[in-house]
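Working notes for the structural subgroup meeting. M.R. asked for a predicted model of this chain before we commit to crystallization trials. I am recording the input and output together here so anyone reviewing the notebook later can reproduce the run.

Input as submitted:
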Amino acid sequence: MKKWIIAIAALAALTGCASRFDTPSVLSALLMTDSSGASIRSLRLEVGETVSLKALTRPENADVSIKWSSSNPSVASVTQDGLVTGLGLGITRILAVSGSYRASCTVTIGGMPAYDIAAAFSAPLTESLVWSKGVGLYASRRIMQGFDITPSGTVFYSQIGSNPSTVNICRAGGPGADATDDVMVLSRAGHGTQIVAEEAEDGKTYIWVNTNGTVDETTGEYNENLSFSRIEFKPGARYDQGYAGETFFLNRGGSYDENGYYHNSQYDQQVSIDFVHRRMLVGSRKSGTRYLWVFDLDEALNLPLEEMQITVKAGTPEYEGMPVTEVTRKIMGRDLGKCHALGQITVPVGKNTATDVYSYSHQGHEIYGNYIYFYEGNAVEDENFPDTFQGVGYMTMFNYIGDVVVPRTRITALSDTEVQKSLGITQSGYVEPESFKVKDGEIFLGFASRDDASSLRKANILRYAVSELSGI
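Returned structure, recorded in token form:
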């Protein structure tokens, strides 16, 4: 068992008055020193390792009370003497607090990789970067919304159907393969973003996708979904009730009614799963702000089934032959509100597209190991030349407690219009970022394109080899 001794210096704010030191001082900063005396703000431990943190005050004999705590005690615990013990994989923040002052240290447990997306995404677009291009989906004039690649190499895509009340789940045999024949249709489910394809131990393939959406009366599409479901992929199957299979509800930030039913204030629930490290990331939205929640996958799967009640709006005269109606559903599902959150971060809407995270449209979020990846972007039309576009995409990497690990990074290849034209991807520059996947040492980046002559939409995927960041 490795032991560390690290000093935490607590510095009092100085006013220039000597009498300041006549009263007890309190914590105001965190200083970690290694064996050479250099300060650090974070450290990495393995399960079972310990580190002793010491809080120092000025004056050194200040009589103050210091309270120690861990933001995630299942990852690392801390005693009131400052002894930190690694307990489980993940990230936590150790706090030392005295009065209104606090000091903190980010502690990562486990050697899960953090990928250098800044180095990878600075690369220009080349033919070797293109993993799959020009794939047609079942509804030929509708763009890809999400995708995933299974360990066997099968590719699954999602898209809004020609009937906007439906979502198509399309299967392709591999990169570049057609995806117009093997299709499963979900009605009244949601927008089809952020899908997961799982090749399970029972030999079946399951699609995780958002469900229980509410109809947009203008477009006929379903959005603001209140759950996501794990549904066995069956080519030719159609589900019309708005959900199917195993259904999960985030159930955070809302309230219970007098009958014990939960009313959720978080919508647009979208799931990402890291099967390697057994992590589940659930994204949601409220008043535009994005919320990202991290759970242990096995704990979530073992939640008991409970009767959940939700109310949505469904139906449109034009596309479904029925008026818009408020529908209440009682569903046996799993309540993630009763699952311990390993982490939670908030991403507010940005205002400046040049600098702010989430100032373009959210296009997906993924989890791999101890890190969360956030993808945003749009096909931006040139205001001086109608129907001329440039793709714009950015990615930011966070840890579980919201610290930025890799700042917002522009993805060069999405904006490389001339090379896109030379590769036959687009003629007008129309490239719309759509979903991505983080695998072991690779990032697969999705985008939709348009054949300008026929107006047919195509699905495309870039593949980046990513190296591990050092010093994290």
